[in-house]
Specification:
single chain, 121 residues, 5 helices, 45% helix
């Protein structure tokens, strides 16, 4: 398929879960970031077709990651995968330019559907 994804989450276990869902969607090229600052550094160094980010991370939040990616003019699809499920948080992410939103805990099928909708469309 040739889709390249960046997955940013400070939890190694959560990154593994998201990687598994991305693999199930046919995405094999995956770069992992351990926090928001790492995500921005890696995003600036190479091209990605999809970004999945947590909200609550050290060094830079997922919201800051979205804002910085959008500030570059990039229209790459971004999925926020987070425990922040309040309406105000969702609205904040939408205003920042997130493409889709998924609250933890989630079913693997729900993440797979969002990845397929954005990355394969």
């Amino acid at each position: 398929m040739g889709i390249k994804a960046l997955i940013a989450d400070d939890s190694g276990v959560m990154r593994k879960i998201i990687v598994r869902a991305a693999n199930a969607a046919g995405i094999q090229e995956i770069t992992e970031a351990v926090d928001g600052a790492d995500a921005i550094k890696k995003f600036g160094a190479e091209h990605f077709d999809l970004v999945l980010t947590d909200w609550n991370m050290p060094n830079k939040t997922g919201l800051e990651v979205i804002q910085e990616i959008r500030a570059t003019g990039s229209t790459v699809p971004i999925i926020m995968v987070t425990t922040e499920g309040e309406k105000a948080s969702v609205l904040q992410a939408i205003q920042a330019g997130v493409s889709d939103y998924l609250t933890k805990p989630f079913e693997a099928d729900a993440l797979l559907a969002k990845i397929e909708k954005l990355a394969i469309a």
